[in-house]
């Protein structure tokens, strides 16, 4: 005998004997990567004038560590890190990717450009002050 288990707007046929466990499994599989990385300690990033380059580097390294812990694929890393960017940082990213070919936008590209913008440049700016 089969029942329909609902998850969001979708229905899935499951046997009556293990309906609950299969629904829980479907929910686990459908959990967004962003929810997973937040569970492991990934935080949003908002650039401020007071940001210390070491603090920014720590944020990036912590985020990379989280991706390694959950064995994320590079495309998931890219999507997740973009979802963590806020305010002017998110605007910077959107502007940047609008200027480069889509196939160039990779996880490695993101890390390189982020470091150039928020670590190297801030270090130089602080040194001039």
From TrEMBL:
Protein name as annotated: Protein MCM10
